TrEMBL record:
Residues 1-150 form the HhH-GPD domain. It comes from the Eukaryota. Its cofactor is [4Fe-4S] cluster. It comes from Oryza brachyantha (malo sina). This is Adenine DNA glycosylase. It holds the Pfam family HhH-GPD. One of its GO terms (cellular component) is nucleus. The lineage of its organism: Eukaryota, Viridiplantae, Streptophyta, Embryophyta, Tracheophyta. It catalyses: Hydrolyzes free adenine bases from 7,8-dihydro-8-oxoguanine:adenine mismatched double-stranded DNA, leaving an apurinic site. Keywords: 4Fe-4S, DNA damage, DNA repair, Glycosidase, Hydrolase, Iron, Iron-sulfur, Metal-binding. Binds 1 [4Fe-4S] cluster. It is an enzyme of class 3 (hydrolase).
Amino acid sequence: MLQQTRVPVVVDYYSRWMARWPTVHSLAAATQEEVNEMWAGLGYYRRARFLLEGAKQIIEKGEFPRTASELRRVRGIGDYTAGAIASIAFNEVVPVVDGNVVRVISRLYAIPDNPKESSTVKRFWELTGELVDPSRPGDFNQAMMELGATLCSKTKPGCSQCPVSSHCQALTLSSQNTSLQVTDFPRVVPKAKPRCDFAAVCVVQIAHALDQGVTCTMDMDNLFLLIKRPEEGLLAGLWEFPSVLVSEGKTDAMNRRKEMDKYLRQLLSIDVKRRSSVILREDVGQYVHIFSHIRLTMFVELMILNLEDDAKQLCKEGQDSTKLRFIDENAVESMGLTSGIRKVYNMVKAFKDKRLKEQSQVTTRKRGRGLK
């Protein structure tokens, strides 16, 4: 949880996680969907999948690995996590190198090289390994990470308070040469420009008294359609509202709706024109969601349908009914959706509330004129 997220954000997630799955055995018995829901909001969902797969792998083996080399064989555990677990939990004398440690080492040794290059990364691990306290490796590694996160910060290092400032070559060089600063280390590498994607997102609401057999917690008056994403790739295995990528030149309403209608017809056997009555279909707005490497612009619309067929029949006709789900509004509120999809739902909810308020005001004005 802490690999990509700050401690204040993680605390509540960690507490809920440990309350539900206090042991590796209990986690291994969970489903991927349960894990995804508990993880929702933390991002980088591949980590959640690896946690579950790793727990199952450990249970199959019958014992928890106790060395860094053994831990690296577990699905989802890399050098950093293996070193942290081995040194902190099992007192193995191995280093831990994260972004904070890279900053400390780069300044201690005044390393000007690109910190992203494999040869430089290897050097950081070797140098940190030489420094690890053999009697207290876990404490040492945690101290190094904490030093980088606090005093040895990116932009405002507290060199006057630093316990290792007398050994810091970057500080020495900066005092001898005014053109150099401690913050010049490590070298800042420009991030790659994120790819720009565009998606038509349709929140499909079913206004029809559908068969109760579809789900046991159904609100018969207010159903929403969710689609499960592929098990590989971005946001693998997570649930979302119907969504289809469109090219940048075809983000206008006509082209977006054409692609969405095609998607619903091909994947779910919903023909908006032939098998349903469109009660309402309006654009709600757009929302930009930033991933680490993608800038996704979502064009959101609300479509309320009155289906001619029931949902059970629709599930049978769909190409893969396991990827299709109808849930009520209460389930949407409590379900562990991604932050992007949660934002889309809140946009639609605000849009509907606004429309309802406007209709109420029109009705009130008409009644007022009638009384006169």
